[in-house]
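User: Run a structure prediction on this.
Assistant: Running it now.
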Amino acid sequence: MKFARHIASRFAFAAALTASAFAAQAAGFDFTNNHFPPQDQSQSTLTRAEVKAQVLDAISKGQMLSQGQSYLPLSAQQQQQQQQPASALSREQVRRETMAAEKAGLLDNYGA
């Protein structure tokens, strides 16, 4: 019984080795047969510094998001929201108004 397991494990190893050898050989072949359209080669005329400057300019104008991997221009609504001034109320005024609204029963108990 021990001998049979030993032979089976060697056979499994040999099969795995053979399969990986075939896979390694196949990796070098072009299976597309040139069915895909060729890609146009393009070369940018801008330097890296110029592109960075353009990106920073677009971010400062609100035309581009500044966080994450996003590169899409903001919608007109998002641009208007960014250009609206911040609240004129202080943090303490907002806290007092919130507490008054809570006492008046105007706030829902979210998460409670």
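The radius of gyration is 32 Å.
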